[in-house]
Amino acid sequence: xxxxxxxxxxxxxxxxxxxxxxxxxxxxxxxxxxxxxxxxxxxxxxxxxxxxxxxxxxxxxxxxxxxxxxxxxxxxxxxxxxxxxxxxxxxxxxxxxxxxxxxxxxxxxxxxxxxxxxxxxxxxxxxxxxxxxxxxxxxxxxxxxx
Length: 146
What we know:
It is globular and about 45 Å long. The protein is built from five helices and four strands; from the N terminus they run H-H-H-H-E-E-E-E-H. By secondary structure, the chain is an alpha+beta fold. Helix 2 packs across helix 3 (33-54).
């Protein structure tokens, strides 16, 4: 959603009113009540799974891997090389548009024992993010992959 739409939602104090506003947002964009429910359900399933898989010092959905998991789903394959982790959403590993690399950020401290990966944000990432956002907003995320 846009920044203005988000700000308007965050100004709503009543939980029931907030839920109705969120439901209206999805229905307005998708147009079909059944598909809107399915998209909302898929979103929360992915948030829950991201929290299970990637939570450490913060909730999993707030991490770079969690964000990508919610946006794109589970990768087709993963590869760990030293302190980097590559997620592939294509069977062609040479297709950079569908490969995302996370670098492990290790803080040298006994007080921070967590594995924390940061996405290497390249220019193509924003194009993929925009395309995937459009699939979510239209409801096509239910039937189409990247």
